[in-house]
């Protein structure tokens, strides 16, 4: 299949490579010349602009962009995709943005005659490279089925979450819970150790009890409890604190618009914000446990 | 073995019955005559007072009491256990109390020549009746091995958490995390549904993603997502909001004494307190999701 | 002076009337015909559109609009003020919006040759009617001096807060603190009364001690402590909970953009949001004390 | 009048000196020999123990002790005041403790035939030395009148707060509000400055608006806004963070016992706890603003 791909950053580039590996023809665009060159070298064709990409004979276009403003610009702008793409081309936005904006863009696409899906991912750059991402997809069931084989080249868990925007809803809801759980684990581990327990023994109790969660049994923030997690390598790699902050910002803003309280979600956002302000924004978000442990001079 | 058991309430009575079923001889005490009569009917011998119980030839004494004040009274009072028990009898306190008090009583016991374990449980009245409780045990390893076969008559998961008081530490740390996670799940589910998602679809996404936790995959608070949980029967049964409040009170007080911050733990305590003040203290703690959903008039 | 005025709602209408009373000639616009008619009856001239208003010979234009989207539309839209106004006309926006948007619009105005001030107000509809508003003004000092006599017809406290956008900064900072203080007073009063104190005695202690604040000594939320405040009339009138929510949304969003933590500010926003969700959004914000008091059935 | 005074620490010693200056005969006790010697040099008589002090012909006894455990020990212990004092002697406890304990001790005193007042102070060591403390007094009105002239030698604002324990209630309620307000001011000032405002201009706006409070207009935490406050001298002197933490611990514990939620009060406690854990417990509590400002390396 001939597929268009816009946005070749840390996530988009490996995703696009996996489409090439799966045998798809790929036309790509990114404002960064080196990013573009990388994909061309891997076998893709470069387009000169989003508009130029949209005017090729692609059957589907995937976008992976930093924020809602970019998504709106690329889809709705005067030289954007909708102004140039032919009817019927399937549009898939894998950016993580707020549900409201996702629905606004999807409605414009549908009005223009283009089916559209929001399909944000989880799994990070590791999952993008390995082709093991999870896609949370919002849109019509028929469009979802059409997209499934394409997405399956880039991920292994493809979930239909309901109508337009629901992929974004699922992602912000899950990640808000993740952000809260990680702080909960950090507080529980730091408290238990301060009261005299061994961290690994405590993690063992929690992981077989009602406190069990992914942040404890798979991604424990206390150094030495698990191997191969950021906590065992100085909190490098993983999912950065500032990325968690972005997702919590989307969650609390979506909650504000829905007039829905999220007291712990908002508290978690502020705690990561404090931690980031102290210079830790680039560390994996599990480093928040350092907020709860007396630091050595 | 001849065992003493003090405290025949909702938890203590079924625990004592399981000791009888396992073939132990049991001498019991409770200030409530009907509670005492129930166990006598089941085959136990009644003692007239804690002191009288302590002066029998029991090899071990188990206590299951409401709060630290009762534990201190029963163990340290003038007519209490330590003043009357012979050296060497194994003392096991299964009450949930603060680690500081547990260590104070254990130190007094050891000074008197009695090995002592703190062994709080999780699993609720259902687990107590079924003999499937989890015991989180603090104390010397040799004493733990001595207690293990006794505890195995009442529970199926017997965990040694380290020295004296660590059973209590494990319990308050786990339950604080549980209290936080449940509110996190409540906020995420209520937000997702308010933004247009189906509750079961959202729970399905979370349970296979990084938000996964016991409060979501085993005890989901949203009505209709899981069968056989309090949410599917009007939040009756289960683990009452006021019991969660008690445990969060122990956790924040232990944190205060350890000069350890627990920001989300304290926020969770206050939210359950608000919910209880509005008249919901007897509902299962997962009912906190109603705090986040517009109630019909 | 001939002045233009756009936005004749609950705040704008009485402000415009005070300009008429002060002897200014007024050309007004509002999309609501009855709102427009009311001002015409009072002596103003109606314009058919923002563009039409901008093309008159007004020396200054004041806008009083609900949110940033309206302000951007009215100033920056194709048929908006900047596209039609002549150079040099002084532009004053009294809407309460986020500082970032205020600075964006001001920069566009200056680029077009029009001095612009952001001048949000406090004092409510009562202050608007009485002409006793406080104006917090951001912009060039010279422009501020030019605006001062106009603003003095509508308010009695005209404060220069620094460069463009700083009027909005001052307002969101003050109102965030107000939102926090009111909840602080609510918690302190409810706690003291629950512990057995008389509300008026407690307020008396606080008002002469270090807890003293406007929310306690001028606007106490406990019924019966002060006369002539919303608490003494069932929380009607005053500054609605949903208006406080709007301002806290601006504050936390401005904080997010500045990467600045506001833990209590965000907690306050969520508490008012809960209170609003329970059906209390139209009550004065001091009614938040009901969140802390057991309600009768 | 012959008065007894127990507890000659940082607060008690200067208070006792002021009683001597006012012409009272003073018998004093403190477990610290140097503390005792200091007062003897100033003209007081030393007692060998609380019991010995109680057996003199004092007409009133004042205690100033660190915490509830000390108060209970001194009043209720076997060698304590109640076991040795003659009926009718007026007992005044100026310690800051929880209202529940204050009421328990007062009830025991009354049962023994001694009128008792709880009379915690505000004003710090500076107020103690200058004789300008505020006394918040709980107890019978007649006893309050009897105590007033004594207290007036040590303070200038003597407030009757109602029955036994209400002095403590007033103090914890006021100080909880103070702890919240200070963080509110810190957040508002740090946010405003981060968004481009001058700190003094912002403080000026707040101090004439609805955000006005003691923490802003009398004790502003931003360096350079006010002279002669801790913020202008590196946060030395003043009211230490760890003392604020103690009072917030009393407030949240009193709230827990009263089943009363205090969401911002608990959040404030946790924030000061974090700040203290980072090594700042000895700084004036207004230093909490550093929690909100990017620190230089």
TrEMBL record, chains A, B, C, D:
Pfam families found in the cross-reference section: NAD_binding_11 (PF14833), NAD_binding_2 (PF03446)
Q: What PANTHER family has UniProt attached to this entry?
A: 3-HYDROXYISOBUTYRATE DEHYDROGENASE, MITOCHONDRIAL, 3-HYDROXYISOBUTYRATE DEHYDROGENASE-RELATED
What's its catalytic activity? 3-hydroxy-2-methylpropanoate + NAD(+) = 2-methyl-3-oxopropanoate + NADH + H(+)
Keywords in alphabetical order, please. Branched-chain amino acid catabolism, NAD, Oxidoreductase
Q: What Gene3D superfamilies is this protein classified in?
A: N-(1-d-carboxylethyl)-l-norvaline Dehydrogenase, domain 2, NAD(P)-binding Rossmann-like Domain
Using the record's annotation, list all stretches that form the 3-hydroxyisobutyrate dehydrogenase-like NAD-binding domain: 165-292
Official protein name in the record: 3-hydroxyisobutyrate dehydrogenase
**What is any one GO biological process for this UniProt entry?**
L-valine catabolic process
Name the active site residues: 171
Look up the EC number in the record and give it: 1.1.1.31
UniProt key word NAD: yes
| Molecular function GO terms recorded | 3-hydroxyisobutyrate dehydrogenase activity; NAD binding; NADP binding
Entry's family note: Belongs to the HIBADH-related family.
Recorded metabolic or biological pathway in which this protein acts: Amino-acid degradation; L-valine degradation
Q: What class of enzyme is it?
A: oxidoreductase
Residue ranges annotated for the 6-phosphogluconate dehydrogenase NADP-binding domain, each copy included: 3-162
């Amino acid at each position: 299949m001939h597929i268009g791909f816009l946005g070749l950053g840390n996530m988009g580039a490996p995703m696009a490579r996996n489409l090439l590996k799966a045998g798809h023809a790929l036309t790509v665009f990114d404002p960064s010349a080196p990013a573009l060159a990388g994909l061309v070298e891997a076998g893709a064709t470069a387009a000169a602009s989003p508009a130029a990409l949209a005017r090729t004979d692609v059957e589907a276009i995937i976008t992976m962009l930093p924020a809602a403003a970019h998504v709106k610009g690329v889809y709705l702008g005067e030289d954007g995709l909708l102004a140039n793409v032919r009817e019927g081309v399937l549009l898939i936005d894998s950016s993580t943005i707020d549900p409201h904006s996702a629905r606004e863009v999807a409605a414009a696409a549908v009005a223009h005659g283009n089916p559209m899906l929001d399909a944000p991912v989880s799994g990070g750059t590791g999952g993008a490279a390995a082709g093991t991402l999870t896609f949370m997809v919002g849109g019509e069931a028929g469009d979802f089925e059409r997209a499934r084989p394409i997405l399956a080249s880039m991920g292994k868990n493809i979930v239909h979450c309901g109508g337009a925007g629901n992929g974004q809803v699922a992602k912000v809801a899950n990640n808000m819970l993740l952000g809260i759980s990680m702080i909960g684990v950090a507080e529980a581990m730091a408290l238990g150790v301060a009261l005299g327990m061994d961290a690994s023994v405590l993690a063992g109790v929690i992981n077989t009890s009602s406190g069990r969660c992914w942040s404890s049994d798979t991604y424990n923030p206390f150094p030495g409890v698990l191997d191969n997690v950021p906590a065992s390598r100085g909190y490098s790699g993983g999912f950065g604190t500032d990325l968690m902050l972005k997702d919590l910002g989307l969650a609390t803003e979506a909650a504000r618009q829905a007039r829905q309280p999220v007291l712990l979600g908002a508290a978690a956002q502020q705690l990561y914000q404090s931690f980031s302000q102290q210079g830790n924004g680039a560390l994996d978000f599990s480093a928040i446990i350092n907020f709860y442990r007396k630091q050595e001079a």
